[in-house]
Structures
1.
Amino acid sequence: MTSPRDKTMTADAAVATLESGMTLGIGGWGSRRKPMSLVRALLRSDITDLTVVTYGGPDVGLLCAAGKIAKLLYGFVTLDSIPLEPHFRAARQGGTIPEVVEYDEGMLQWGLFAGSLRLPFLPTRAGLGSGVMEVNPDLKTIRSPYDDDEELLAVPGIRLDAAFVHMNRADSRGNAQYLGPDIYFDDLYLGACDPGHRFVSCEKVIPTAELGSEGSFHTLKINRSMVDGVIESPNGAHFTSCEPDYDRDEGFQTAYATAARDPEAWAGFVEKYLSGSEADYQEAVNGR
Amino acid sequence: MVDSSEVHPADVAVLACAEAFRGDGEIFASGMGTIPLLGSRLARATFEPDLLVSDGIAFFVDGELPLGSQNRQIEGWIPFRSVFDTLWGGRRHVIMGASQIDGSGNTNIANIGDWHRPKVQLLGMRGGPGNTINHAVSYWIPKQSQRVFVEAVDMVSGIGYDRAASLSPWVRQNHRIPRVVTNLAVLDFDNDDNRMQIQSVHPWSSVAEVVDATGFELVVPDEVPISRSPDTAELDALNRLDPKGVRHREVSV
């Protein structure tokens, strides 16, 4: 008899399996429960030319600042308590993101859902008549085949080569648990991703038998068939929120956003926080 | 009635936002920003008791939730996926902001200048396209001016009546902009052409001032009433919902 797969690994090992040019989906929402330790591992790597799909927050800002994004598909990019992500804003106004696809928030869910169901598209009204249609000339509409004959927007299914999400708990086999108020769309990123590069970081890896006592069964929306790698990463969503383990580090986020508005200050921020390992980062954060 | 000399602009603005929800019944009343949020809570606390209001995180809250209070009584769960379900299902009315709005109610929160390389990147489309095509969307604009009230918006993140008219019969039936509330007036589109018109001017404002702060031709009815001021019960509710008076910092006259 063989044992079940143990999928635990380090963030750097996870990123080492990626290749430049991949399409990467990043879970979370704005500055909430972002897989920041995996993003930081990506910043330490040579991986570049990524197509990034996300409800964006500082993940997008950091990847923009590092010049790793070739194409960005987003519903928004925000730090929540700070409405505009400064690196993203600078990148858009400076024209430094080679290709940009901007969707309505609901359209992005629909694209990921269609992708996760392996459908070519899902119909919606969200986006029709708006600027979304003008700035995305590849979007097509489709007529209802029923008596209503209504013209609807066909949101193309999004398939990912790699996916990063951050959860509160997981077991070593990839059953993952969110304990906060919202899963956001994390299960859809994993569902829309081909097997091989579906990575879940978490605050704590626990035995399977303990998942049931951490939260109700409703919190177990991600099962191990959706996951290839599990990375234990305490404080891994920092500085975004990861309720109930911790809130957003507003002081740090303000320092991040302030530094991001000034190239010299940003170089100092990178030197202080982003030039070493994840352990170095956490130590620098603790030493503030 | 309260003596109009004692009326604070923010109270009139919040009440005008609350009035947007009158008659809505049992739907999700949502507000982006302090004044719209207080408007939804004031409506629920007074004349629309069946409205659902959220804590802005993931829960519907029962009773009166003062601004900034963590002492919430949860009556339901509304994570983002359920927000999308609810809004596509039409059981929502939101008051959004807008950096630009035109005479047909097309709005822009996305960017100023050409989208391909914006002069100013704003919030992006967010949920504007989906909101406006699926349910009632009203707007709160804290400083009405010709920079905001423009002939044509740079990017349509929220669709107006002219664009809705070019879409399906279903869209024409479901698209609705009940009102636009500003620091000067309440505006609506309740005429045959669905062009923006003055519904009422605030006590400290005038028709001439509103017209002057608008960069397109506004429909001006023969009779323009003064916006209603809160009565004693409404003022009491407002002071319970915003005991620190945060709202007063949000409206400049």
Note: The helical segments of chain B are 9-20, 34-45, 80-88, 128-134, 161-165, 169-174, 207-212, 232-241.
2.
Amino acid sequence: MSSVSPLLQADPAGAVQRAPGARLEARSLRKSYRTSEGAEVLALEDASLQAAAGEFVAVIGPSGCGKSTLFHILAGLEDPEAGQVLIDGSVVEQRLGACAFMPQRDGLLPWRRTIDNVTVGLSLAGVPRAEAHERAGPLLERFGLGGFERAWPWQLSGGMRHRAAFLRTALLGRPAMLLDEPFGALDGITRADLQHWLLEVWEQVGSTVLLITHDVAEAVYLADRVYVFSPRPGRVAATLSIELPRPRTLEMLGTQEFAAQEARLREALREHSVR
Amino acid sequence: MSATTTTLVSDAPAQSLEQAPPARRPSTLRWRPHHVWPPALVLLGVVVLWEVLTSTLHVSTTVLPGPALVLEATWEDRANLWPAIWTTTKEAVLGVALATVVAVALAVAIDWSRTVRRSFYPLMVTSQTLPIIVLAPLVVIWFGFGTAPKIGLVALFTFFPVAVGTVQGLASADPDAMALLRTMGASRAQLLLRVRAPSAVPQMFTGLKVGVTYAYVSAIFAEYVGAEQGLGVYMQASKNAFRTELVFGAILVTTLLTLALFVGVALLERLAMPWRRPSQSEVDW
């Protein structure tokens, strides 16, 4: 139970309790790969970014600009060749397990029922099954998975699978969440639902969120700040603050202010995507 | 929680209920008429033809007894057949069990340690080309005429498909799922237990289904080489007594027993993987 903070305990109504976010910082990360032909490809070069405690930060950039590599380094799956990752101001030696990571694919384990999939992090931390179920039960209802606790992953719709994957991420109770294009594979309607719902959860939980996206409107709608990445080697080309009030609502999507922010971001992207 | 979320959230399951197929049980062993009738009719045709030919052409029953005679004689001799069935079944089932335990253990070791993989896996794969039947006399020389050498020979036959299937199954684990659990702080042992092992179950069973089809045959062969009891001994004794109809009876019994063993493994497979969606298991049949 040591590595799971009790931040995300459900109250009887199934709400998620507030968790203070962590300050997340990447300093001058560098990472290269060797292709099968032996050529060296520089994925990241001098990539730096930071997210304040509780901030919602989006990372946007052309395909193959090293965004996913950045997340893999932050999550501890890969080590940078140069640079550092700091959480709350100090270098973290063991990054695996420090942040909650949500990959592009939902990654639900086919042999676990919904309730066991969302509590997989708790079970890895040694929380007894009954206790984990007790903790997750009310949240399943809250995350729109009520009645599907005992369903196998193949019995869930795409949107439900993503909600389960997100609940699994949130239940880890980490002070920072890394979301790697969580809604990329979904249809437009489901996607809009999930974006709105992610905002609500984040506003309740209060943890720091770093989100990779390809979608300009998604970045504007969700984030406080947006980092624009340059094409390979990936580095931060521009930073934009999104000047829209919180809480964000679906009605904002049609406003001129929203369109103006979107245009700014599009312009920044265009400017920095030229190779 | 705001009203908006409540609506969103309550909409979702309704919408996905249509998408989600009804939660029916995997139907590995459900009989479907269009799957059963054609082969059954062919089989019936062969049996009828066989009966008609043997009785009209007056073939000697020592050469080719008719099916009716086979069934009748076998039934009459059941008192001698039962102990033979029991002995051979014991050898076959224990051999399969032994092979599965050893194969899975070795597969996990191969998966876990690069050294073990490099030193054992190539040998394991190449040793599959070895005709195990030639080992039968040796096994009898080493372990005598009791049950042990038969179990050993059955295990040798069953071992390879199970071991290779399990190694491949363990390696087939989804790398994304592995990465995800690593970011949650999972240890290597936890990854093996929570991701790799469940991923290996389907291919382990595929190997086991291949393996068990050899189980009775290899037990009987081991008995030919030297045994006091069993279907192999029964067949040889019947042959020596020119009771060809009893040899046929023993062959029929062996076929049915092999089929039963296969169906037993298929049932076990279904029990072991309740998570499989029905369409996946239907492909097997």
Note: The mean pLDDT of chain B is 86.
